[in-house]
Amino acid sequence: MALMITDECINCDVCEPECPNGAISPGEEIYVIDPGLCTECVGHYDEPQCQQVCPVDCIPLDPGHKESRDELMEKYHLITAA
């Protein structure tokens, strides 16, 4: 499952540089996560790095983008193959 950033985001800028896939970017009001690039850090780390550094705990799983660990690993391979 991809992750998402909720309205509780305080735009502190700590999550964006932690994303190894470049899935996090500034949105109109808060940061956003591109579900096409988010692998929950599968293939890079044991845990999502954005969740680890977020001071307000506003990065839950996105129920609109359900993916298994195998699907996330496949996406990781596609993203890093270039």
UniProtKB/TrEMBL annotation:
NCBIfam families: di_4Fe-4S_YfhL. Keywords: 4Fe-4S, Iron, Iron-sulfur, Metal-binding. Residues 1-29, 31-64 form the 4Fe-4S ferredoxin-type domain. This is YfhL family 4Fe-4S dicluster ferredoxin. The lineage of its organism: Bacteria, Pseudomonadati, Pseudomonadota, Gammaproteobacteria, Oceanospirillales. InterPro entries: 4Fe4S_Fe-S-bd, 4Fe4S_Fe_S_CS, PSI_iron-sulfur_center, YfhL-like. It comes from the Bacteria. PANTHER family: PHOTOSYSTEM I IRON-SULFUR CENTER, PHOTOSYSTEM I IRON-SULFUR CENTER-RELATED. Pfam families: Fer4_7. It comes from Halomonas gemina.
